[in-house]
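I am still getting used to backbone structure tokens and would like to learn alongside you. To get us started, please write out a protein record for me. Start from the sequence, derive the backbone structure tokens from it, and show both lines together. Once you have written the record down, we can walk along the chain together:
***
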Amino acid sequence: MTVQNKKRQSWKQDPEAVRSDILKVAMAEFAANGLSGARMDEIASKTKTSKRMIYYYFGDKSGLYRQALEEAYREVRAGEEKLELQDLSPVEALRNLVEFTFDHHSRNPNFIRLIMIENIHHGEYLEYSEVIRNLNVSAIDKLEMIYRRGLEAGVFREGITPLQLHWQISALSFFNVSNRATFSLIFGDSLLKPEGQKALRQQVVDMVLRFATR
């Protein structure tokens, strides 16, 4: 059986797995090379399908990029859902959310690079993605639930919005990945080593908790 026939057979047997495989490869390619630098031929060669099938699934390169961006957001929000924050005290819920965000971003640099690339494009593709807007509503809803419970319990201070909390958590966790190359070249890589990352993780948690608690 030829390689092309094997790809065609895989597509017919499990189209969702093939689609997922395309998105996984595309996320890595776009993160590494940007929207303009990524090549559809290269993406096709690394997947279980063909260039023609990629166009069938995603329409064109822009469509593939947008859905790769959506998948990146879907993964982080799915991870948040598994935390079951509603079963924890407000402080522990906030702690777990901060720890998860720091760890997710640290372990998934492609997610950070995709967001950086989308910012280079001034959010052009995100703006027209209802999927991403709907996904990210849940991020604020979770923080609103945690913050409201914290206020009711008398452990969080007043005058903070869930959006501000989300900004603080995202900013601290994002910079840890987005500026790795330049920061380490200027100041050395001690903070990027396991012990350095462990210390930063704890400091980020402490800073957010001190910001939120009374």
